[in-house]
Write a structure and sequence with these properties.
With 301 residues, the chain is α+β, with helices and mostly antiparallel strands. The protein is built from ten helices and eleven strands. Strands 6, 7, 8, 9 and 10 form a five-stranded antiparallel β-sheet that branches. Strands 1-2 form a two-stranded antiparallel ribbon. It has a two-stranded antiparallel sheet with strand order 3-4. 19% of the residues are buried.
Length: 301
């Protein structure tokens, strides 16, 4: 995993759910009186005993603590996407899918709706980060031989192996396993049964969750991957034996493998090499002057 992608995963969105921020223009305060989903903001947003917290106090706190950083982030994204569109910059779709899959392997169990929402957030951030780096490094000279050398030296970092998001229940014997199967067939949740029956101390309290594992992982026994090959997403397996007991496996999600050839990865490699030649930090604020930004805080610091 590249350092840029790792940093991107850590800083995907510092603030993701602030939908209301107070704006100050010419000394006058202008407030938004409803949430993004249409709900009206009440005068009191909380009551603690006989004391209330007023909406004005809450919104003022949001603005003071997050307003500037959130607004700067929003400006940065608009600057980068506007310049990228103006210059007709594009990204390799396989690269986006690979980075998207890599980020997803660090996520937990999600519903389909939540997964789609998260993916849209992650995809936007991936596009932003890559386009920002493209804009800041496009004038730095990098030769084709430099790019080819990096690809030849570290080919594995440009591949994403098929990965499976798994949970498990391990019980002592087949009899107990069949009891668990009957309860699953009766509608009991896999997570609750893992907490009740599983003897695996590492996963039982987490509802049996193992996480994502690539198909070439040596952490899990081969029988796990042999089993999931014949499973559909959101389904559980029949019991199978390992040294520690009898396993029932749950397959939540499959992330297909992605293989980036040199041409697919060329621009990513070029950007990474160019970044190492830069003397300044990666910041969209260096691009503000190319678009023209005027914001309520007056300066760019």
């Amino acid at each position: 995993m590249s350092k840029r992608l790792l940093w991107g995963m850590i800083t995907v969105l510092m603030v993701t759910n602030i939908t209301t921020v107070l704006l100050f223009t010419n000394g006058n305060q202008a407030s938004i009186d409803e949430f993004e989903d249409g709900r009206k903001i009440p005068n009191e947003v909380a009551v603690v005993g006989d004391e209330s917290i007023k909406a004005e106090e809450w919104l003022d706190g949001l603005e003071q603590n997050y307003g500037k950083s959130y607004l700067k982030s929003a400006i940065n994204q608009k600057v980068v996407f506007r310049l990228a569109e103006k210059q007709n910059l594009s990204l390799n779709d396989k690269l986006i899918q690979k980075e998207l899959a890599t980020i997803e392997t660090a996520s937990g169990i999600m519903s389909d709706k939540e997964r789609e929402r998260k993916r849209e957030q992650w995809k936007k951030n991936i596009r932003y980060q890559n386009l920002l780096e493209e804009l800041l490094t496009q004038d730095i000279q990098v030769t084709d031989s430099e790019v080819a050398q990096v690809y030849e030296e570290e080919p594995d970092q440009f591949d994403f192996p098929t990965s499976y998001q798994l949970s498990q229940i391990i019980v002592e014997d087949e009899s107990t396993a069949q009891k668990v199967i009957r309860e699953l067939e009766g509608g009991s949740s896999f997570s609750s049964l893992a907490k009740e029956y599983s003897i695996d101390e590492n996963t039982s309290e987490k509802g049996g969750v193992l996480g994502y594992f690539p198909e070439d992982s040596t952490y899990l026994q081969d029988i796990y991957f042999e089993t999931v090959e014949n499973m559909e997403e959101d389904s559980y397996s029949q019991p199978f034996e390992i040294e520690d007991g009898t396993v029932i496996l749950y397959l939540h999600q499959v992330l297909p493998g992605i293989d980036l050839q040199l041409e697919d990865a060329r621009n990513e490699i070029r950007r990474e090499i160019a970044k190492n030649k830069m003397t300044q930090e990666i910041s969209a604020e260096y691009l503000w002057g190319e678009v023209g930004v005027n914001w309520i805080y007056g300066d760019q610091s």
